[in-house]
Design a protein that fits this description.
Length: 206
Amino acid sequence: MTKTIAAINIALAVLVLIPGLYAPVTVAGALIPARFTFGDGVFGDVGYMLPVWLTPFSSAFLHGGILHVALNMLMLLMVGANLERVLGSKSFALLYGAGVVASAAAQFASDPQSVVPVVGASGAISALFAAHMQLFPRNRPADWGRVSGKLVHALQLLVAWVAFNLMLGFVGPGIGVNIAIWAHIGGFVAGLALTWPLLNWRYRNA
């Protein structure tokens, strides 16, 4: 599943290198929050656009260039193989899909009127990072009274991830990079919430 997702992303990134394809493909498939808020009429006659409900998924397979897709696929391959071995392909796919949906929802909630196209797999990959950090920790915190060590660890990871992404959001515009930090945070939250349920589901008959 990890290799399949990476292959699809890379193939689409190469495809849109064909002159004249990048802009129409991005407009057709990017997540654009204003489409959910106002409908497609706000864009006038811009050509073909995928149904808006599909765009959280289509946008996760589109990227803003070769460097963008290369970085995301490197992150995917770094954590995906180990994670897929533990969770299994089905649970891995469910986690990735939940990351797609949660990241899109968080990005929409951050600015429902935005007309800026959002593309990239980083929101879904953030869910994988959350799962990987929980399943392969360097140190697992002890229980805090009645609060389990697993929950303490998840809260620590969430605080660190939010802080890291807020810093990215502050620094990014200064170097000419727009980063969908709320997509990253939304995907990460989905990963934190689903890791243990998905692991338990896979080994439910063990």
